[in-house]
Amino acid sequence: MANDARIVIDLDVPGPVINRHLYGHFSEHLGRCIYGGFYVGEDSPIPNEGGIRLDVVEALRKINIPNLRWPGGCFADEYHWTDGIGPKDQRPTMVNTHWGNVEENNHFGTHEFMALCELLGADPYVNGNVGSGTVKEMSDWVEYLTRDGDSPMVRQRKANGRDEPWRVPFWGIGNEAWGCGGNMRAQAYADLARQYATFCRDHGDNELYRIAAGAADGDLEWTETLMKAISCLGCSRTPKKIFQGLSIHYYTVAGPWDHKGSATEFDLEDYYLTLGKAQFVDRIISGHSAIMDAYDPDRTVGLVLDEWGTWWDVEPGTNPGFLFQQNTLRDALVAGTHFDIFHKHAERLMMANIAQTVNVLQAMILTDDSADGRGALVLTPTYHVFEMNKGHQGAQRLPVHIVTGPDPHPAGGYQVALLSASASTTGDSALVSLTNVEANEPTTVVLDLRGRDLAGQTARVLAADVLQAHNTPADPDRVSPRELTDVQPHPRGLQVTLPPHSFATLELLLD
Ligand code: AHR
């Protein structure tokens, strides 16, 4: 039996802009994210430009990725950027102690990352090293990347083949300083963040958006300490903030840390618990926003969720340090509900970065390195949510009210909402996203469309026979968007029937 729901959407009340950077990405020197994922080297039989995989670039261009964070993560705080410039055969190697204890040859460095961003059409978000670096090292990196004219760093950059400075809008001041980034206490890090941020200069017209390494999950005290430290005490005539944003990290981990559960083998109880944990990101963002509101009521400081997504046990037989996991329809529904929550927080949340883009955690793309696979590439169900939702980037949020719907489902202390929705407009059109979290039943939704007339619509759905469905090189389109045919006119607007466990988008043409 189908559930019934009614959702009111005020089409004529455009709200805040949904920052396109909420659809951001994260690429770390971890497992096969960079090497094998983004970068295969110039000599690879896989088509590449300067070693960067062109099939990966092509797939990511289709989802308009707005920014890419690099080189970590935990790796950022042991990365020394000068090791990754100059002739590749002369670059020193290092041990990646966080991720698999493997040797890093530094063949993918600053120039390769910037070339990747240019190919993707994405803004670079470079994460500097506070944990084991120096203020000078970070300051020099900013100069190397962004300064024009003549200076010691500019001369080095030119000697390495790049005359023009790059534009680097986003700069991270360390990562997870409370943990892998140095095991610091909040006040100690806040003082360091002020110091490092001071020497990350704006060169020419490159204005940096400096992002302080923020809290884990619900650590509100960390956020409060950073908010107290953000004002530039010595610059009362120009009350500029020392850093412009601060981050938080929140992963959807359904099990205990040492047994997070399988990505593909799970039961209904695991499923609902996962969705409960995913929806809890709303509380996490609300909590940090409330603290920020107290210190920054005009909301000039951005909250940056620069790591989010599901975290499962690694796929059997793969390196535990490489965090390679499969990606099912369940992961897609986690992404769908996250985006509805991100849109809800558009006034404060200025960026979010899923962890991670290729071959690590909740990836968009999985590549197959085996001899048989010959570098085959699979788009995950999560990729399709990003693609179906890309019209929200830079659009204005619309008020959405789920007036009636199925009762929440209790799971592990969470009350899991069984229907999730959001909408936005660019003027002539609106995009509506709907997630039917209900595992077993379809949901018939009346979209009560107010304030504008409807001139037409198209609808797509991401669904599968079972929640565990996922894509493989042998069956790459098992979970992929299809036309949603069960859409009818209704006196209030439209009536849509969503299959069980599905994600759907409707593009509405407005008169
Ligand atoms: O994304 C994997 C790791 O998770 C990152 O390196 C770190 O910042 C977080 O703990």
Strand residues, percent: 25-35%
What gap, in angstroms, lies between the N and C termini? 35 Å
Biggest pleated sheet:
8 strands, parallel, barrel
Low-pLDDT parts are: none
What CATH architecture label of the largest domain applies? Alpha-Beta Barrel
The strand count comes to 27
Class inferred from helices and paired strands: alpha/beta
Helix content: 10-25%
What's the CATH topology label of the largest domain?
A: TIM Barrel
Number of helices: 10
Overall pLDDT? 96
So what's the CATH class of the largest domain?
Answer: Alpha Beta
- The whole-angstrom Rg is 23 Å
List of distinct ligands in this structure? alpha-L-arabinofuranose
Structure description:
Homohexamer; trimer of dimers. Its EC number is 3.2.1.55. It is an enzyme of class 3 (hydrolase). The protein is built from ten helices and 27 strands. With 511 residues, it is of the alpha/beta class. The protein has two domains: 3-11 and 397-510, Sandwich (Immunoglobulin-like), CATH 2.60.40.1180; 20-394, Glycosidases (TIM Barrel, Alpha-Beta Barrel). The strands form seven sheets. It has an eight-stranded parallel barrel, surrounded by six helices. It is globular. The protein starts with a strand and ends with a strand. The mean pLDDT is 96. Bound molecules: alpha-L-arabinofuranose (AHR). Alpha-L-arabinofuranose is lined by residues 28, 72-74, 175-176, 307, 355-356, 361. Alpha-L-arabinofuranose binds at residues 28, 72-74, 175-176, 307, 355-356, 361.
